[in-house]
Amino acid sequence: MSLTRVLALGAVLLSLVLLPKILRWRARMTKLNAIPTVGNSGIFSSYASARRFKDHALEIIQEGYEKYPGRAFKAPIPGGWQVIVSGKDMIDDIKRANDSDLSFQEAVTENMQSDYTMGLAARIDAYQINVVRSPLTRSLAAKFDDLWDEIQAAFIDEIPAKESEWMKVSMLHTVTRIISRTSNRYFVGLPVCRDPDYVRSTIEFTSNAFNGARILRRYPGFLKPLVRRYFTNVPLGVARATKHLEPVIRERLRKEEEFGTTDWPDKPSDLISWLLDAANTPERRKNIVSEIVSRILLINMAAIHTTTFTNTLFQLAANPDIAQPLREEFQACVNEQGWTKAAMGQMRKLDSFIKETQRLVGFEGLSSNRMVMRDFTFSNGTEVPAGTLVGVAAYALHHDADLYEKPDILDPFRFSNMRTKEGEGFKHQIVAQDHSFGLFGHGGKHMCPGRFFAVNQLKALVGHVLISYDIKFENDGGVPDTCWEGIDACPDSTVLVMFRKRSTNV
């Protein structure tokens, strides 16, 4: 066969391989090009806009939200396109969509590189979600004493303020340690939850996972295992947590073998037990220690996202007049119900204050992120091709003057006042489904399953601050600016808050 014929045959074979890919790419881009763009949409110019997204994401999202109300628009991001939607109808479309069309899990996998930062098994067989949704949430009332006990102990250790003088506290770092301790009292119990190295390991794993995801997103799939191992701190963090948790897990397994049952006498009621109970098949029992550890770290990542508590304390420090009505409500509920989950449920003003604080800032510019698994058409006719990320413009939604009166002003009892209207008693709670509020998602089966634990923990934490301390900013400063990286918010880690022990307590 002549060289010419060989080259011709090679060209034909190459075209047969490439042509379908080219046609699919053109079809995908045709659908994407039909969606208006904020920023540049050219093949090369879009890269400049993608770099801009890192520092100006909120401005880009706000621009699109105002230009295309109730519609979709897109913005270039590193590695592709982000389609952003608003309006009740499009939010409802996301809420009702099947996972085979719009996948929450695949969006997490892409954004957090979770196969490499949190473990492949936790995605393939995500039984930890049902554990959070069921036994973890159901046990809140029964285990509230443990939570409250650890809150008191953690504050004594972390903020040993006196009545006679003000104490400066590095807010974000202190809050992170307090939340790790109180969460892990519920998750893994004493004494592990108070071990300083374990506390640091859970905090640092969260940071390492987010940083690792940013690094991993830069590399193709075949390189990611090597990148994870050599260029991130994720493996080190897993090993560090395993050192503390493996003896506990092994002892639980030994008890099961000794008694011949998973329901042995005096079995602790905690996340370790609940995960072991859910690992009830031979397949789930393979590599059981690493599987349990990875899921505990994953749940810790959600629990130790401390933006909400820190922002709430910033608002208290900047607005001392808010403290007294909150304190009076808190004391009245505790006097009637004790330090219980039931008491937390009666605190409408505190619920409103926490929700309003998160409406003002939140911790992400987008919510309800989904990966489009196959070409999807919204009810208004917008077509989004497979392989595209879709999310709701949550920050812009929270600052929409058509939805919220004076949206840029803190109105601490905005939502508790709404709940006084007939039929509105549940609707405006922070844990409720709400098209205009996206802290935990906008509804549907993928609303954060841990939101009930998170809100009860937050109320108890803020309540303890209210009855135990006076707080303020030095020189009576206002709320510090939030640091943003892309769509992710983080309170300024350098901010100090002044604490003074109160003379009265509940």
Blueprint (SSEs and pairs):
Layout: H1 3-33, H2 45-67, E1 73-77, E2 80-85, H3 88-96, E3 102-103, H4 104-112, H5 114-124, H6 127-138, H7 144-158, E4 167-170, H8 171-187, H9 196-216, H10 224-231, H11 234-259, H12 271-278, H13 282-285, H14 288-303, H15 307-318, H16 323-337, H17 341-345, H18 348-360, E5 367-372, E6 376-377, E7 383-384, E8 389-392, H19 394-398, H20 414-418, H21 451-468, E9 469-472, E10 483-485, E11 488-490, E12 496-501
Parallel strand pairs: 2-8
Antiparallel strand pairs: 1-2, 3-5, 4-12, 5-8, 6-7, 9-12, 10-11
Helix pairs in contact: 4-5, 5-9, 5-14, 6-12, 7-8, 7-21, 8-9, 9-11, 9-14, 11-14, 12-14, 15-18
Report what the structure shows.
It is a single chain. This protein is α+β, with helices and mostly antiparallel strands. The chain folds into two domains: 23-124 and 365-400, Uridine Diphospho-n-acetylenolpyruvylglucosamine Reductase, domain 2 (2-Layer Sandwich); 125-363 and 401-435 and 439-501, Cytochrome P450 (Cytochrome p450, Orthogonal Bundle), CATH 1.10.630. 56% of the residues lie in helices and 9% in strands. The protein is built from 21 helices and twelve strands. It has helices at 3-33, 45-67, 88-96, 104-112, 114-124, 127-138, 144-158, 171-187, 196-216, 224-231, 234-259, 271-278, 282-285, 288-303, 307-318, 323-337, 341-345, 348-360, 394-398, 414-418, 451-468; strands spanning 73-77, 80-85, 102-103, 167-170, 367-372, 376-377, 383-384, 389-392, 469-472, 483-485, 488-490, 496-501. Strands 1-2-8-5-3 form a five-stranded mixed β-sheet. α8 (171-187) crosses α9. It is globular, with a radius of gyration of 25 Å. Its cofactor is heme. InterPro entries: Cyt_P450, Cyt_P450_E_grp-IV, Cyt_P450_sf. Keywords: Heme, Iron, Metal-binding, Monooxygenase, Oxidoreductase. Heme binds at residue 448. Belongs to the cytochrome P450 family.
